[in-house]
Amino acid sequence: MKKLNETKVKELPTYVQKQLQFVGVNQVKSSTIVMVLIMLDLFIAIPLFYPLTPVFFYITIPLLFITHVWMVRLLFKNPYSTQFEFILFIGTYGLVSAVCFFILSIKMSIHYLYIESISYYISSLRCSLLS
To answer: What's the pLDDT at 69?
Structure first.
């Protein structure tokens, strides 16, 4: 990773300097808990598993399991040593939640809207990959 010269960083505007700083040490654990337990479990896992469909279950369970294990690891680790790892966790969390939301949208369209046309799912996959 390329290091920035401190004199050049001081010349940048304040809002840019703030974005270049790490997440605060006291925010690592609370942010991890909020992101995984509230945002991921409440908004994705519960609707995804309510009318249980084995195909969607087997696709999303490994992703959710890995995210939860990583969250527990971050909670028990020293927060001063997890600042880089927390940034990687945020990126992985975004990827996992995007995949789970896409699978949730497919499940909703099958169970509640009764869309069975394969062309709908191909076009939705194509649109999601292009955006």
So the answer is: 93
The pLDDT tens digits for 82-110 are 778 888 888 999 999 988 888 888 888 88
* pTM, two decimal places: 0.76
Single out the residue of 45, 41, 44, 30 nearest to residue 86, CA to CA. Answer: 30
| Cα–Cα distance for residue pair 67/14, rounded to 1 Å | 33
* Mean per-residue pLDDT, 15-37: 80
Length of the chain in residues, anyone?
Answer: 131
Round to whole Å and give the CA distance between 60 and 49.
Answer: 10
Q: CA 115 to CA 99: how far, in whole Å?
A: 20
| Per-residue b or e along 23-39, where b marks 16 or more CB atoms closer than 10 Å to that residue's CB | eeeeebbebbeebbeee
| 74 Cβ contact list (under 8 Å, min separation 6) | 28, 29, 32, 82, 85, 86, 89
Residue 66's SS3 state is helix
Residue 92: count of CB within 10 angstroms of its CB: 14
